[in-house]
Amino acid sequence: MVNVQQTIAKNISFNGIGLFGGTPVSVTFKPAPENHGVVFVRTDLGGTQIPALVSNVIKRPRRTALKAGSATIETCEHCLSAVAASNIDNLIIEINATELPAMDGSALPFLERLHDAGIVQQEASRKVLKVHEPIVVRQDDAMVAAVPAENGESTYTYQVDYSNVPAIGSQVSTFNLGDDSYEKEIAPARTFILKHEAEAMRAQGIGSHLSEDEVLVIDDNGPIGNNNFRFPNEPVRHKMLDLIGDLFLVGTRIEGRIVAHKSGHALNQLMAKRLIEQYRADEFLQLSRKAVAFDARQINRILPHRYPMLLVDRVLEIDGDRRVIGIKNVTANEPFFQGHFPGTPMMPGVLIVEALAQLSGVLIGQSLEHAGKLAVLLSLDRVKIRKPVTPGDQLLLEAEAVKIRARVAHMRCRAYVAEELAAEAEVKFMLVDDDQE
Question: pTM of the prediction?
């Protein structure tokens, strides 16, 4: 397994129709720079970007969907499974409709196009999400567990139980994502649906453009129409494919053992969220043991803000011009608590966002290139306040650079209380000369 980030070597385009909606769609895979991540771009909506992260997941039946603003991406799990298996960290996926093409219902067509584009290594080190402590999520009789693994393994085990469908029954499969056998063993497995489920969906007008020859529809005796199983246990292999794609929404490769029983997309996505929470908690614990990168005096040299508007107390870590992590200690003495709200003190959400913007200003202003510049707020997007912040909390602030240029900067920001996400926003700045303010 390579330890540096990877992207593709060239653009590659293809067409198809959506599995659920039947809408024609064109897709182009494009190389992306280091630390970019996998991002969908809706070209039909002016280039709206939708990062492939579990924080952007919205509820949809029988598929994984993402949303940013009013833009959505539907049925992305097969494509993301192929990206994960290809060890690609950075990728732009341009798409001119809501839903990715169904292709043959498997991940193989996506995988083949990624291979045709070629995989190239980049210089930046690859991030890895390592499972340190067991995590279990359940829903009724379904379950997904993640446990630590030795030697950097990324192993998936899935069990399906269709005891009421003789053609499927109980099936178990185990796969190591570090192997080279994904193309032969997992990627060709197609999405499937039981006959009575297909009839119910067609009655609702869903999937009426498809026939049993194009989708794997199964009754008690097996596939109907002119279809046949590609593997005797094709259903469990496809569930494995989905699991790999859904968990790739953590944004990086997972080191650990994943065990799933009868899980679907919603439970897979919940596990992705729990994995990120554990990763953040461990990362922040390690940061708390490190020396402070910038103390209050050094922050004052970079930011023009002063009491009561200086909302960054310490900077714990700066990773070049890419990422910065800082702290805001929230005390009962904060002046805004007097009126927000008497008897139920809560930090205003706009001030949490302001703290994130100030931390972004530290990242921008600490470089020689932008010395003497002020980062003036230009726009806010995808702002979400996820939990109250009250006296005694410690806000751990994180800002990542999406793009920094001579006159503009675009940052992706998050604020946490312990390991729980409290707020997030994308912030754009105009960089102006200090003497113009």
Answer: 0.80
